[in-house]
Amino acid sequence: MPKFLLAEEPTGPNDREIFIYSPHYLSLVLVIPEDDITVLLNNEMRQKPSKTFQYEDETFELVIFQNNVLHAGGVLSPEISEEEFLNQAWKFWEDYLIWEDRNIDENQSSQFN
After folding, report:
1. Strand-strand pairing, 58-66 and 50-55
2. Are 90 and 53 in contact (CB under 8 A)?
3. β-strand partners of 107
4. pLDDT digits (tens, 9 = 90+) for 49-79
5. pTM recorded for the entire structure
6. For residue 33, which of 59, 13, 72 has the smallest C-alpha distance?
């Protein structure tokens, strides 16, 4: 079973929300690009565990939207802190961004977009 899965609505608009789901920790992370931070980070979202990351010239805020990290560790994955969970989710997202940069040609019609 993968530790993380990319979770987004494939038929939604281009500016749709992007999530990372962890079946190991039964938790959902919201990926917020820098341009959307002020729109999506309301008072409720600001109370949730979050961390800011940088990829090239982009900034992303990762927020644990559905949080079971402290309750789900053990059987499928070792117990970890929320901060370590966000670091692992970031590594998954960063690897995806690197893959996307190498495989998607913005100048041509792509099967991936």
Report:
1. antiparallel
2. yes
3. none
4. 999 999 999 999 999 999 999 888 666 688 8
5. 0.82
6. 59
